[in-house]
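Can't paste images in this forum, so I'm doing it all in text. The chain is below; anyone willing to post the predicted structure tokens underneath?
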Amino acid sequence: MPVKGHCPDAPPKPPMCELPPSTVVRKGSYPPCRKQTDVVGMSVDGESVMMVFGGDGYDFRVNGDKHDIFLQDTWLYQLETKQWVSPALMLPNGTDKFHPSKRWKAGFAAVSQTEVLLFGGCKSDSAGGVLDDLWLLSLHSLELAEWRRIPSLNAPAARRGFALATNETHLVISGGKSVTEGGNSVCLTDTWLLPLSSLKANQSAEWVQGQDFPGACRWGATGSKMVDLNGGGMLALFGGRIKIGRQYTYFHDLWFYNFQNNSWTLAGAVAPLQARDHHGADVIQNKLFVFGGRVNDRNSSDTVLNDLWSFSLQEGWKQQESEGKLLPAARFAMGVSARVGSENSRELIVFGGESLPGSTTMTTHNDVWSYNIATNSWTEVAPSHCECEALHADNVSGCCQPVALAV
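Text version of the structure:
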């Protein structure tokens, strides 16, 4: 009869590879391969960078074994020099909580070229670990950054997998998945706004509820900022899915939330692309670009995509054909962002994600790809390096040791 549960005589697992304190800058190593994060284009010290935080990935034990973990690391990828750096994080006065906790499926939005807001996410596989904290990341240089928790009043329910964007005056979030007091998962349709003017130090930010999303409830949608024909800002919400019983329904409708009028509108053009969730999206020259994603819950190669589509208010939907043969691997739950802070701001950047069939420890990526909308071509900026020696290049002698084989 098989024994279930913990065996007291089982040898303890080797410890995880040690990392330097978050107050120390790291150079020469790669971030762990991951999914369910996002990336944000930023610019500091005159360089275009891509910011990555957290997600679901894996690291290594000292004997070389892989271990699936939720992450809480902050990384910058320098698009000009093609180098990764994990900046040293400043310690705020009077607190030891100087960066967000481990999480995946959080929301990110740029406030400026050197500042990014983070809201929510989840610290567990189930929705029971959803979060409702709000943080502001400020880049002081390529090697020094600061996370600051923003106290807030009238905060929205904790959630994950929601749409989020900013305009010049407000942060807006909508939808996602949360949990009831009884511990059951619940889909959300609420919309909330936060004035960006309230992000000043030592000031509480107060949320205001907007009009509920009128479409079918969903999570895993993307939120991106566009400008309407009158010059007003709006949140473009695309895709997502919902599970009813044992069946998932995927969406490919596009909705606009008007910041000024506090109203939702369904885009008139029928989306010709496949319904999907856990895709990536961002806006370049007021065109919404949508890349990849997942179309069903099977663990098979036909589940994930690597197609790229654009939507403009004038032209509607258009598939972006690549002039070259080089394409990113099909994937879902990757980060997608427009490049900022340079003359090359006509590039869409893709980072990480997971290909199928596979799993977090087998087929997640930490590669970087760029799509140039002027030349309609993909470039592999940096291939994936998920091996232990790459993730711990600054301490490989104290980690990444192979398991000794029994004689």
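Confidence is low (pLDDT under 50) at residues 1-6. The chain has one domain: 27-398.
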